[in-house]
Design brief:
The protein contains 15 helices and five strands. The protein is mainly α and 367 residues long. The chain has four domains: 57 residues, no CATH class; 183 residues, Fic-like fold; 44 residues, no CATH class; 50 residues, no CATH class. It has a three-stranded antiparallel beta sheet with strand order 1-5-4, covered by helices on one side.
Length: 367
């Protein structure tokens, strides 16, 4: 069981990751799995096989999902957030599976996050679902969603960055600053006399908040790595950059240690406005529900690269996407896409469709 527990801490084996890694793995390209312990590789191959066999049977179109979602909403159940269903939308698939396998969380895996975090998420989701369908999808809506979704959030990262910056300015040792950051994380009390309300519903604007990204692959030791595909996609991203001097190839080229950067704070406001303008143009040109999903997923990928806020970007962008889907009669996906930076458009659409189907099934089962 220890080996299985280690595997659940490596997010490449669980959930829909196998959808876009599956064919590469079965064709002998094991760039992701060969870096894992043998038991993890076996679990991944089993998951790939099961998903591949099931996909042929469970294939569903967006129009079919729209009809099922209309029926679900006609009963009013979509507007009632349920921790056992909607709580999963806050947590990636691998963390959800790991929480369910943990004795203290097995019956309430959503409590891997604090009660206040879940309550804020459910309240924000309910608010988004209650908005008029003609609600304008703009920067103001994005900020309001963040304000609600992060209503009780303590912005540890913002505190830590300012502690470290102050330490450099006053000559404090790195270790002394790290002691302060650890205390802040444990006690959730500001060491910098910061009013955290200022971060809720506000984009990053200060240079101290230039945020790094070190890859979406989390290893068993909690280290982060890029796959070659993700790093290439980040290099191609319109709003991200890679520090090429930080790039170090590992595991024979299968994993890469590197530091990328989300968009610089001074460009965030304009980039968000531009991204949402492009979204509206693409939605007007859409000819099918799949086109709507594709345009929305492109928006999500761009927003992830912009990373407008100090924290809570994923959940806020997810709820913004919900508002777009709902406007076009589509359900939200059940679980977050932790690999959106790596996926192609077609992979992201397939992932979203599966998540939408699972959302409807889970919500219906909970009625």
């Amino acid at each position: 069981m220890k080996e299985v527990e280690e595997c659940t801490r490596v997010r490449v084996w669980g959930g829909m990751i196998v959808m876009f890694l599956g064919m590469r793995l079965m064709m002998g390209d094991v760039f992701a799995s060969s870096a894992l312990p043998q038991p993890c590789r076996e679990l991944l191959r089993d998951a790939v096989r099961a998903r591949s066999e099931g996909r042929r049977v469970e294939s569903v179109t967006a129009r079919e999902l729209m009809a099922e979602y209309k029926d679900l909403r006609s009963n009013g159940n979509d507007y009632l957030p349920l921790p056992g269903v909607d709580g999963q939308r806050l947590i990636n698939e691998a963390d959800w599976a790991r929480a369910k396998a943990t004795e203290s969380f097995e019956n309430e895996p959503w409590m891997i996050y604090s009660g206040k975090t879940i309550d804020d998420w459910l309240a924000a989701e309910k608010w988004v679902n209650s908005r008029p369908l003609d609600q304008l999808v703009d920067s103001d809506l994005l900020k309001e969603i963040h304000r609600r979704a992060m209503a009780h959030h303590f912005f540890t990262g913002a505190e830590n960055r300012r502690i470290l910056k102050q330490g450099r300015e006053v000559g404090r040792t790195v270790e002394e600053s790290l002691v302060m950051t650890r205390r802040v994380a444990q006690e959730e009390v500001s060491a910098m006399a910061l009013d955290h309300a200022q971060f809720r519903g506000s984009f990053r604007t200060e240079s101290v908040d230039q945020l790094p990204h070190r890859g979406s692959l989390t290893l068993a030791d909690e280290g982060r790595r890029f796959t070659p595909i993700e790093l290439q996609r980040v290099r191609e991203h319109p709003y991200m950059s890679v520090d090429e001097s930080s790039v170090k190839i590992e595991s024979g080229g299968k994993l890469i240690r590197a530091t990328a950067r989300y968009l610089a704070p001074e460009h965030v406001e304009a980039a968000v406005a531009e991204t949402l303008t492009v979204l509206q143009a693409e939605l007007k040109q859409s000819q099918s529900p799949e086109d709507v999903i594709r345009a929305t997923q492109r928006m999500v990928r761009k927003m992830v690269g912009i990373h407008p806020f100090q924290d809570g970007n994923g959940r806020t962008i997810r709820l913004l996407a919900d508002s777009v889907y709902r406007k076009h009669g589509l359900p939200p996906p059940l679980y977050p896409n932790e690999w959106d930076l790596e996926m192609s458009d077609s992979e992201a659409v397939a992932y979203a469709l599966k998540g939408m189907r699972d959302y409807i099934q889970s919500k219906s089962a909970a009625r």
